[in-house]
Protein: GTP-binding protein
Organism: Methanochimaera problematica
Amino acid sequence: MSDNTGTILLIGNPNVGKSVLFNRLTGADAVVSNYPGTTVDYTMGKVTIDKKTMTVIDVPGAYSLKARDRAEEVAVKMLREHPRAVVIIVLDATRIERGLYIALETLEMGYPAVVVLNMTDIAKEKQILADAGKLQKILGVPVVATSAISGEGVKNLGDVIRKAQIANPEEIKARAEGKEIKPVKKPGCAGCGGCGGCGGI
């Protein structure tokens, strides 16, 4: 499996709705394969963004990039095999804190990223406030709220993928501590995702 600049990796814990989100993005034409030398499977499909066809890979669910099982080992290998990929980090909106560990690990690797707060419909039912805007300003990358089951927010995600940003771990720590960080213009952003990276909050 070689690197491809037209690759999108879906990363996240198990049971956060990654597979449903993958199906929403790619449609029915998906291929399920075993990662070479393992029994761990992953799904691959295509999505067209701005007339560019990109490969989407639903990476096996993982809680950490410090691999403790075969699925996490495969997740780490897939990230390393696609160093120029765009990463979509999927979090469960009802348990955001549970997914932040792998989210921060992934952001620290320097990938252009978008964070998805999925299952927002369930969060609303449970009266859990999933503040995408606040998380977006802390992480410095676009954050999109979705409900993959209903399709809510998926179109917006498609539009925001091209605005993926590389996070600055030191700035994330400072913002989480309540410190004000002056936005610095970042190259490569096709438009304002509201993450603050380009100053367009």
